[in-house]
Amino acid sequence: MTFFYRMKSSGACARLLVGTLLGALALSAAAQTPARFADNMAERTRACTACHGEQGRAGPDGYYPRLAGKPAGYLHNQLRNFAQGRRHYELMTRLIDPLSDNYLGEMARYFADLQLPYPRPTAANTISAERLARGQQLVTQGDAARDLPACIQCHGARLTGVQPNVPGLLGLPLDYLNAQMGAWQTGQRKAHAPDCMAQVIQRVPSDDLIAVSSWLARQPLPADTRPAALAPQSPPLPEAWRCGSAPELNPTSAGAKP
Predict the structure, then answer these.
(1) 143 phi/psi in degrees, rounded to 5
(2) Checking phi first, is residue 16 left (phi over 0); if not, alpha (psi -120 to 50) or beta?
(3) Which of 57, 192, 204, 225 could form a disulfide with 244 if both were Cys (CB 3.0 to 4.6 A apart)?
(4) Across-strand partners of 161?
């Protein structure tokens, strides 16, 4: 019995030794073969596209937004917000913490320059025609009774955003829109002061926020999905709605920080 046990042990050790030697040989061969990685931003941002989709087209689960084609200033501001604690997602914070602000700007410009087609809208949540009409009204006209500006006053007549700092609202998954508006409403998401989005969202009832997101998520994209070059030609926003992260929307806030 003792001999049999020793034979088993010897056989196990032999197999372990052979496995170790084969592993060492494989590692040696791998070490002699130089890794081939392109020295470009597409390669360096693979950690981003692992969640945000190939070329930043958007993640498949509806919670990771599209990066491609968004204004560079907006993308840069969001990276700063994660780095400086105005937005909270540990994975994002840990990824960008070692990076300089200049490098964050390079990343933002890389994704902003990617002009890729958008998928068709897929929102299919149950909502009445009346509620959708309410969402459209808030987006295109605002609500004078609550002193709320229309979304198009900041995000552009085509809702594709405005250069350099205002994002588009079309082509975003319903779940992402709901999550972000909920985060603004509860203070989990913030922007550089004065935080106009927080002030607007916190005045809107939850049912109306769902109406807005449901209407936006159902809209087809225009032929030209690029952000507008200039802010909408409409009366300046009241002083109360100044946006620290988008001073171009209101001439009186020209000195605000990004």
Answers:
(1) -145, 100
(2) alpha
(3) 192
(4) 167
Q: Are 236 and 251 in contact (CB under 8 A)?
A: yes
Which sign does the torsion angle of CA 150, 151, 152, 154 carry? positive
Residue 66's pLDDT is: 94
How far is 24 from 35, CA to CA, in rounded Å? 18
Residue with tokens 């372990």: 16
Q: Retrieve residue 252's tokens.
A: 């009186």
b/e sequence 43-57, b meaning 16+ C-beta within 10 Å: eebeebbebbbebbb
- Contact between 74 and 65 (Cβ < 8 Å): no
Cα–Cα dist 3/46, whole Å: 55
Question: Are 175 and 168 a contacting pair, CB within 8 Å?
Answer: no
- The SS3 assignment for 71 reads coil
Tell whether the torsion through CA atoms of 17, 23, 25 and 28 is positive or negative.
Answer: negative
